Amino acid sequence: MNSSEIKHAQTQYAVSEFIRKRWSARAFNDTPIPQETLETLLEAASWAPSANNEQPWVYYYAFKGTEGFEKLWNCLLPGNQLWTKNASVLVLSLVRKTFEANQKPNNSAKYDLGAANATLLLEATQHDIFGHIMGGFDAEKTKNMFNLDENLEPVVMMALGYLAEAETLEEPFKTRELTPRKRKSVSEISKKL
Length: 193
What we know:
Layout: H1 3-7, H2 17-21, H3 35-46, E1 57-63, H4 67-75, H5 78-84, E2 89-96, H6 109-125, E3 130-134, H7 139-145, E4 152-161, H8 173-177, H9 186-189
Antiparallel strand pairs: 1-2, 2-4, 3-4
Helix pairs in contact: 3-6
């Protein structure tokens, strides 16, 4: 059984296939993601809901083999560097902290970015692309590396690529790639009022 079969969500209810298929892979092969396909994923993200239609998300991305990829990769913590080196694309997800219309704080910005990232990842599954979102990066180093202004906050990094076999990974990542996913039950995360 390969990692895609192992990670395919076993749901209690009839969840859509593209949701059941999405998981945070670490093993990527060397097939490049075409520019147009990446732009399709980014456009999908642009259609996520946001407070006042602010769309506070900003994406910096780079393809493997470029200087930009090396810069992003160097901002990751060492544990994430071990497996992200094979990703086709690295993406830095940022938010504008204030509303553009009035410069007041946008307290929903990170929530909105999460919705955009989820939308991007769900679109990615339609193209057989897998993504892994990481909080394990040096935010201060990232701010300095990309000379970010005070209103732009780096929130998470994302690795994107086409799947490789789990055997291409070192431990402990190989075992994680081959371990079935688990989620809390609907009754554990919700309460009928």
